Amino acid sequence: MKLIGTVLRCSARKVNSSSKETYVTNLLVLDPENSGGTNYAVEVWDDKPHQVTPMSEVALTVIGVVNKSGGVPALRAVMAAQPPKPAGSEAPAAETLAAA
């Protein structure tokens, strides 16, 4: 299942997992596709912590359910490939300031 939504909160922590460095990034994601505006608690386990800016859009691939009872459904997911930022996206602004 794919989940594309708005990040409301993001935190990461290091965990001990079979003698290798593993990080869990916890996200609270608002799913705009759901008319009720459902929030999902999402765990992303990886070899590096993910830093996702609140109110940014994120694409996730859900690989499991941690908990579906209670208030907020909890899912386990992997980060989908995020589109790269354009290399010269800030260059025009710098050139404009230098020309002025």
Question: How would you explain this protein's 3D organization?
Answer:
This protein has 100 residues and is mainly beta. The protein contains 1 helix and 5 strands, in the order βββββα. A 5-stranded mixed barrel has the order 1-2-3-5-4. A hairpin with a 2-residue loop joins β1 (2-17) and β2. Residues 88-100 have low confidence and may be disordered.
Keywords, separated by commas or semicolons:
single chain; disordered C terminus; about 50% strand; five-stranded mixed barrel; about 100 residues; mainly beta
Q: What is the rounded Rg?
A: 17 Å
| SSE series | EEEEEH
**Low-pLDDT residue spans:** 88-100
- Average pLDDT, rounded to a whole number, is 78
Helix count equals: 1
Give the CA-CA distance, first to last residue: 50 Å
Structure classification: mainly beta
Give the CA-based shape: globular
Largest sheet: 5 strands, mixed, barrel
For the secondary structure, the number of strands is: 5
Helical residue percent? Answer: under 10%
Trace the largest sheet across and list its strands.
Answer: 1-2-3-5-4
Strand content: over 45%
Q: What does this entry show, briefly?
A:
The chain has 100 residues and is mostly beta strands.
Summarize the SSE layout with pairings.
Elements: E1 2-17, E2 20-30, E3 39-46, E4 57-67, E5 74-79, H1 91-99
Parallel strand pairs: 3-5
Antiparallel strand pairs: 1-2, 1-4, 2-3, 4-5
